[in-house]
Amino acid sequence: MLLLFTLLLTCILLTCSHGFNLDINHPIVYEDPLKGVGRRGSYFGFSVLLHSGPKPWIQIGAPRGNDTKLYPGVIEPGVVFRCPIAESCYALKFDTSENKKEYGKGKLKYREQKNAAWIGGAMDIQEEQGNIVVCGHRWRNTYERNTVDFMLGVCYCSKIEQNGTTAKGTYKLLPLLNSDKYTTSVNRQHIPNYAVGQAGISVHIPPPEVCKCEIHMFLIMDNMWQKLE
Ligand SMILES: *[C@@H]1O[C@H](CO)[C@@H](O)[C@H](O)[C@H]1NC(C)=O
Ligand SMILES: *[C@@H]1O[C@H](CO)[C@@H](O)[C@H](O)[C@H]1NC(C)=O
Predict the structure, then answer these.
(1) What is the distance between the alpha carbons of residues 111 and 186, in angstroms, rounded to a whole number?
(2) Would the pTM count as exceeding 0.85?
(3) Which of 42, 120, 180, 191 has the fewest CB atoms found within 10 Å of its own CB?
């Protein structure tokens, strides 16, 4: 019986698996362009994606990276590099507004806070539609009437063919930007709802046959954090 079961399991595993060879003799090594004496690690390589085609490249996230040229005055927003195969890497530009920039009007006015946003913590590519998405799930915003920041998370969407050195044509997605839903009432108590939702902690663009333009993002709701702790 055990033998039969083992044979069956082996057959299933064999039909489901694909071979994949790594060329260990001729590796192409990309080193962290932000590496420097006395600096703490940028987590270069935390996320990675590959674009095949006539001009292939890989894109490498360094979610704790500093880039004072791209983001003056911002501490560790996260930096994403594009590296043509066997060439050197360059940093991609998304939304490079200075820290604490104001958006919205009146009661809805908020300032964004990109320190430690973890941009490049998660990313995905969809070759058929030519879309790329890069997220920073620790992106925060602050309203004047609140003393706390909301950790809503941000994602940036762009096209594969786009020259990543300008932010032109990049869309900024803030799926949890809805001040009516930051908290919810449970037993007459306000508890966080979207407030610490961290959209974009992981991200996936489904293939076109599943959905035309939707991006699935994993959200961590604050009440779930409490349950986990
Ligand atoms: C980023 O810059 C800040 C301020 O200069 C520094 O304290 C921090 O160690 C740097 N982080 C990395 C990952 O280089
Ligand atoms: C992107 O465009 C700029 C200006 O048009 C150019 O200088 C740069 O070399 C281009 N970068 C890439 C990677 O194509």
Answers:
(1) 28
(2) no
(3) 180
